[in-house]
Amino acid sequence: MNKIRIRAAAVLFLIMFLLCCAAAGGCSSAGEEKESQSRQTLDKNKAEEEADGAAKEDKTEEDRIKKEKSEKEKTEKTGKSREKASPEELRIREMMSSMTVEEKVSQLFIVRPEQLTGVDVAIQAGETTRECLANRPVGGIIYFKQNIIDEQQLRVMIENTKSYSKYPIFIAVDEEGGTLVSRIANHEAFSVEDVPDMQVVGASGDYNEAYRIGQTIGSYLHELGFNLDFAPVADVLTDPDNTAIGVRSFGPDPLVDAEMTACVVRGLKEQGVNAVLKHFPGHGGTVGDSHWEAVSNERTFKQLQETEFVPFTAGIEAGAECVMAGHIMLPQAAGDGLPATLSPAIITDILRGKLGFDGVVITDSMRMEAITNYYSPEEAAVRAIQAGVDMILEPEDFDKAYTGILNAVQNGTISEERIDESVYRILLCKSRC
User: Fold this and answer.
1) Does some domain include residue 261?
2) Are residues 71 and 192 in the same domain?
3) Which domain holds residue 86?
4) Residue among 226, 347, 338, 232 nearest 281 (CA)
5) Which residues are catalytic?
6) Domain end: 74, 98, 122, which one?
7) Is the residue at 44 inside a domain?
8) What averages of pLDDT result for each successive group of 10 residues across the chain (433 residues)?
9) Taking the CA atoms of the chain, what radius of gyration do you get in angstroms?
10) Which residues pair with 274 in a beta bridge?
11) How many Å apart are CA 250 and CA 45, to the nearest integer?
């Protein structure tokens, strides 16, 4: 009986042992299966990470290749551009590479000597002029009757001003010829030839006389040291009652005006003086005077093409490298409610785009009430550059206008590349006179 019990207990123990082993084996298999699944998941994640890493590396390599290609193309383009550039153009690029932003911004201004130096009336250029030009090397100085005493005084003042300027400088004057706007010929201290009003020349139909007038004015201006003349007046007198232009215009016929304008340009240019065509887009058909109020020309673009633009196109083709933008709105042709001096539609789209002018665009005097009644010196200066203008003539407040543009460059409102475009045009124009 005891043996039977012992055997039964042994069998029971054996059965329990086998059951435990089986259970242990199941746990081990499940663990192995779970471990295998985890390992597979890890391997999958690792593979995905490696794939992502490879993709990122490929993308980075692709970006690097694209960047190198772009830089290579840019270098090749610059190289080709340099190959095509003249020695003078290369010299200008080299000059610009050493200019500070402040110096570049200074180049955008043509000012009265009083605006530069702060004196009441400038009749000489001495140490104050030297110091001010060193601080702000402006693009040009314009002289008026109040600055002129006699020939010797004027020559010395101009020579000193040029010698003090770190960069080439425009020495400018309004010398249209005729009875109204001739700072030299109408000055009692000078014995140069008095030429007739341009309206008289236009009515004569004598193009040779227009050419001779250009040469005559250019000759005495060049001898005195001037290199920029705000002339000829290219405005077609479409409104006979217009008093802002009047006898300063060659007359109402755009074809006659065009040839007269071209002849004067050639005459000035041959004497080493840059001509400035004025007042784009045409002041001869406006009611009112931009010296005292906002003015507009109501003609359509087609009408402007057939009339007002004709003399400007002829002057540009004759070699004029500068155009003065007037404070004239074009409601029908531009429709932006802005005077030409501040209008991208008029300066960039029409003058540069339609007429193909790639020279220097200069504003009319920014002291005129067509500007000062509506815009601060800072806003007017910034908007002019944004419109496509290169040089600002006589800002209402030079310090504020200069600071306005400098701040606009520093805060990104105007790019330095945009400033470089204008400075390049300015320096290139100066190199040719």
Assistant:
1) yes
2) no
3) 57-98
4) 347
5) 291, 364
6) 98
7) no
8) 47 47 42 44 50 50 50 43 77 96 98 98 98 98 98 98 98 97 97 96 98 98 98 96 93 98 98 98 85 87 97 98 97 95 98 97 97 97 98 98 98 98 98 85
9) 38
10) 228
11) 85
